[in-house]
Amino acid sequence: MPDRRTLLPPGSTALERNLSVAMADIEDVPIPVRDVRRAATVPAHLMPWLAWERSVDRWDDSWPEATKRKVLADSHRVHQLKGTVGAVRRAVEPLGYLLDVIEWWETTPPGPRGTARVAIGVLEHGITDAMYAELVRLIDDAWRLSIHRTGLEVHMEARADRRVAVASYDGDEMTVYPYQPGPIEITVSAKAAATHHTIDTITVYPQ
């Protein structure tokens, strides 16, 4: 260990001086505060503590690590937008479900004022009763209280890759003929002009 200056007074005991030397090594211990506070770099075993710090409304240790990091990354935005459709979507979609909120003015004919219904798209993995109850709790927690929810629909959706190919074949036909000059017409306008120049000579004699 390199020599370090101590701040202990001269009258310190041997125990205090030994503790000062031993505890000085803590300066060499890396403290990655930034990495611990970021959702993308926090170690997996510290994720629950970061979720507690960010007031994440819903946390499940059985979630995949990617889902946990997504929930941590969206936590600030969820609290900023709480009460909006965006907050409801951010609270549900990290769990792997698709959410759509249809408000009263988006239906034909328009529904009762101040109402909305929620449609959840369930992918191939389906949904359990426990997960359905948890989704209801998450939606209620982020829901805007001024809007009354009239229903919660669950739809099964299956996604597949669709490939579309487009080909285009185009061409032009052009015929080139030898050059044949046509008649040349020249138009000339005739203009007439006249001029007159007169000189008078006067001789004056003395008397």
TrEMBL record:
Superkingdom of origin organism: Bacteria
Pfam families: Tail_P2_I
Protein name: Phage tail fibers
